[in-house]
Please model this.
Amino acid sequence: MPTDADQLLAVTLDGLSGLIAALIRRGYRVAGPTVRDGIIGYDEIASLEDLPRGWSDEQRGGHYRLVRRDDEALFGYAVGPHSWKRYLHPPLLQLWRARRNGDATALESDPRPRERFAFIGVRSCELHAIAIQDEVFLRGRHADPHYRARRDGAVLIAVNCAVAGGTCFCASMKTGPRATAGFDIALTELITDEGHLFLAASGTDIGRELLAQTPHRNATPEQAATAEKIVDRTAQRMGRQMRSDDLHDLLLRNLDHPRWSEVADRCLSCGNCTMVCPTCFCTAVEDSSDLTGAEVSRSRRWDSCFSVDFSYLHGGSVRQSVRSRYRQWMTHKLATWHDQFGSSGCVGCGRCITWCPVGIDITEEVRAIRESGHS
Amino acid sequence: MTAPHRRPRLAVWKFASCDGCQLSLLDCEDELLAVAGAIDIAYFPEATRGAVSGHYDLSLVEGSITTAHDAERIRQVRGRSARLVTIGACATSGGIQALRNFADIRDFTAAVYARPDYISTLATSTPIAGHVAVDFELRGCPVNKRQLLEVICAFLAGRRPAVAAHSVCMECKLKGNLCVMVAHGTACLGPVTHAGCGALCPAYHRGCYGCYGPQETPNTASLGGSLRALGMDERALHRIYRTFNANAEAFRCESDRHAD
Model:
């Protein structure tokens, strides 16, 4: 976020409401956090009223509960189980289908979405996760057209975190809690004696244009300083910490560490960690045919390196043991991702810790290897 | 396997079962005409009368083996079938009736029948694969009709059915369900249970009951720690696995680790 107070605008609740209305008017499909079934998840929203006003969450390994706040904050919680990959990289996607008609075959590809997305309340860790998936899907000679169709033109309205969740460790991964790049607009929520405000910075032309049309005032230096303090405090209150500068070599030096067997005893190989991870991108491709063979289709769905079929090669799965699957997931995420994509695959959002039914904690697993492994 | 000159012949066989899985095929209302058009349903007592002898390209087998007569009959069915697919918890693990495996069958027959001496039954209920070679096992109590259609289509096309053996958790996450265990503190067998139902119960905020049996690499011992933390005692941990798939190895072993 720019520290120059001149670039910061103060927007009221009504102003933010107008911003959402403007996005909808412009034809964006607006998605944001909303309370549903005891979680804060991402869903399409129609107005400010759909946001989780006055809610927060309590998170630790294998545990998530909504709790009430004593104020009316709209963004006073950490991330829930959903991530934006649900929209940009849908869980299930038909890639094409073909129909035989006499001697001719008609091929139809994935119907690309006509509308563009606008995401409200994107956290810094999630901006980094989206940037990582951009690298995975869009870089190189074979960009993924399905991802590109959803990603292009998407408006990202970020929120600087005012609350650190019990399993957050973005400060360790240097991916937050302050949004520094990749957003169109970044907001910081301020609830003070002056009222309920959002300090808004724009990161792109579309962000500037949207803010220019939103009623605002220039933020005062005091407001800007308060916003800085809020995010600084969040950085100091991370629920987890993990030294991250040496993970590549540390993990690859310890591929035979006994800890992999210990974690395999606890791991359910249920795949939850990979499903909730905002950067995990793997899919299984499945073909289907109808009874007569007149119509066939090919689709892809999220898969997980914790499933046996994931590593099925000729003759069988090469990762039969849960030990080998957990090790594959963690070493890819934290070590070989650097070799493949030039960054860590972990953004420190903590979802894999919270949503593991037995609370396996990636930061604890790293710590155990660091403390007793080959350094 | 599809002969060009004739429609493939399908048979549906019933052993010890409730007919629910056969009904899943009849439940394919919209698709049933297409099924009937594409294949010759040569033997299907639930839908038609009149047995047809001969050979079958695909046999779907429902139910478990609980009598000496059925143990012999399944061998005959296997002999008549180019491909044999078992459908449902009874056929793939022994079903709810496999609870007899943990007790004395004579106590049950004495409790239920006025003349238990008329009853001729085995002491156990066992899956079809324990008696003959099986080409594919479709899990569930009952089976999912879409998966059943997928298996039939796949066998007709000579391809592998797209039926995943991973956990129910992955189905929950694909659908965007919340996790009832983590977010509500509700005991759930989803992490150790085979996918296929579409995460039906968690979608309605209930824990998974394990109707599809163990997933490919279940870790019931580790899940037990979390279930205990959610308030389940030894007896509850014993009983939660003694349902439709009580005789499936992973569920049987975990149940046995806890006292009734």
Summary: Chain B has two domains: 9-157, 168-256. The longest strand of chain B covers residues 56-62. Residues 188 and 207 of chain B are 4 Å apart (CA to CA).
